[in-house]
Design a protein that fits this description.
This protein is mainly α. 52% of the residues lie in helices and 8% in strands. It is built from 15 helices and twelve strands. The strands form five sheets. Strands 2-1-12 form a three-stranded antiparallel beta sheet. A hairpin with a 2-residue loop joins strand 9 and strand 10. Helix 7 runs parallel beside helix 11 and helix 13 packs across helix 14. The longest helix has 32 residues. The radius of gyration is 25 Å and the shape is globular.
């Protein structure tokens, strides 16, 4: 029996070694085929949200292919459904089959998101240039030219402009500005007929700094990443018109209808950088005040708002301003001072799990090996839900294991699939504990395809 046992040992060992080898190969194949977050990747993101140490397992080939397909699907849906008049819109459908539009929504922020869309087109053009993509970029510039003309105050950027006869738009503009204007039946208090020759259009006024920030973001991205003389010439024309209006209005935003939004230093600084870059030599008198604003920003550092701040969107505005400053600045000393501000801002928001901010950081600094930035860009986009992005009621207060800071917020940032669906995920607090609704209300997917193409340009996301 002893002899028999000894003779069997090699056979048994070979048997188990074979099983182990099979399991190793199978596990490797399984890891390669994973298109969602792996358990190790999810664990790393949870650790980053808690500001603790982690190792980031890089995106695999299957994840890269799936993410590319998701970005393409979101962009295709955006082109099909979310540009009804060439400008960005949320869509409230009658049903989930998208048979007909009940009402267009989100138009008060349309110029902001159209600027983000232009940035995405510019990034993609930098990676995959082509005539169709170029034409889309030119088409967006046409719409911005309309927005700065339709009010009759050349250079003022309207929030939106569309045909007065569109029923989906009528439902929005007829009450825009907190109700109908009793003296102008059918128009909201801050909705106006276009100046000649745009009388058939209705435009939305009382533009905020958000509108101008989103516009300069898109124009700056196109100026930086689209190497095309005609496109750059069109950008210069638009920027020059806005510059003349801002300077004439002492850097405030006036729509000519009695509405005013005050400009602040950070707002002025980003626009000055864009003006000086798009129109070299034309506005030399802005060089000195711009340099002074840069010194002041460097001294105090960039502001980052708390992860549970109710107006969290202010963080997005600050990051897109920093994008323009960092990617367009050419003075080496000034640029290094701006990059130091950017690094501090990114470190402060790393636990927020924000792919857009991380992509801006990498494009600005060139640090595409930064582990927190790579984890945010790769991991959060992998986890981003597939289209369509309809409204969906979410209540994390009843989910076991979720730690609440207080009723409206969780203690730590949630992963994209767990969050309340919104217009642009990265401008909302990642800790909102509940909200939204179960309705065929469709949000655009700019928050997926914009950081995706930024990540491709930055060399963080591999080609499929």
């Amino acid at each position: 029996m002893v002899v028999q046992k000894i003779q069997l040992l090699p056979i048994i060992a070979a048997h188990w070694l074979g099983i182990f080898a099979f399991m190793t190969v199978s596990n490797a194949a399984s890891a390669e085929e994973t298109t969602g977050l792996s358990s190790q990747q999810e664990e790393a993101l949870r650790a980053m949200a808690r500001d603790t140490a982690f190792d980031w397992p890089a995106m695999n080939a299957a994840q890269a292919r799936a993410l590319h397909a998701k970005a393409e699907a979101y962009l295709d849906a955006y082109h099909r459904y979310h540009l009804p008049h060439g400008l960005s819109a949320d869509v409230w459908w009658h049903d989930y089959d998208r048979t007909s539009v009940y009402r267009l929504e989100g138009l008060g922020d349309s110029a902001t998101w159209t600027g983000h869309y232009l940035a995405a087109l510019a990034m993609r053009h930098h990676v995959e240039p082509g005539p169709e993509l170029r034409q889309r970029i030119v088409g967006v510039l046409d719409k911005f030219d309309l927005l700065i003309t339709v009010s009759g105050r050349r250079g003022y950027i309207a929030r939106y402009a569309g045909p007065a006869t569109d029923p989906g738009y009528q439902g929005y503009y007829s009450v825009y500005g907190r109700g109908e204007d009793p003296e102008r039946p059918g128009l909201g208090l801050r909705a106006y007929r276009g100046a000649p020759p745009y009388e058939e259009l209705v435009w939305l006024g009382y533009s905020s700094r958000d509108i101008y920030d989103g516009t300069q973001y898109g124009l700056a991205a196109a100026l930086k990443y689209v190497e095309d003389d005609e496109v750059r010439g069109r950008i210069a024309t638009i920027v020059s018109a806005v510059a003349d209006r801002l300077i004439a209005d002492d850097w405030d935003i006036l729509d000519g209808k009695g509405n005013r939004t005050r400009g602040n230093d950070f707002f002025k600084m980003a626009w000055m950088r864009l003006i000086l870059s798009a129109c070299p030599g034309q506005y030399a008198h802005l060089e000195a005040p711009y340099a002074d604003l840069c010194r002041r920003l460097s001294d105090r550092g960039g502001r980052v708002y708390d992860i549970r701040y109710r107006e969290y969107f202010a963080n997005n505005l600050n990051f897109i301003r920093m994008f323009t400053l960092c990617v367009l600045e050419r003075d080496p000393d000034r640029k290094e001072a701006l990059l130091a501000v950017m690094r501090r801002m990114h470190e402060a928001v790393a636990p927020h799990l924000n792919a857009h901010f991380a992509a801006i950081f990498v494009l600005a600094t060139g640090d595409n090996e930064h582990p927190k930035a790579r984890a945010a860009i790769e991991g959060l986009l992998i986890d981003f839900p597939d289209p369509p992005k309809f409204g969906r009621a979410v209540d994390l207060r009843q989910v076991p294991g979720i730690e609440l800071e207080h009723d409206d917020y969780t203690r730590y940032a949630q992963l994209p699939r767990e969050r309340v669906p919104t217009d642009f995920m990265w401008q909302r607090s990642p800790c909102v504990s509940h909200g939204s609704w179960d309705l065929p209300f469709e949000f655009p997917g700019i928050d997926l395809f914009l950081p995706y193409w930024m990540g491709r340009v930055a060399g963080v996301i591999p080609a499929p």
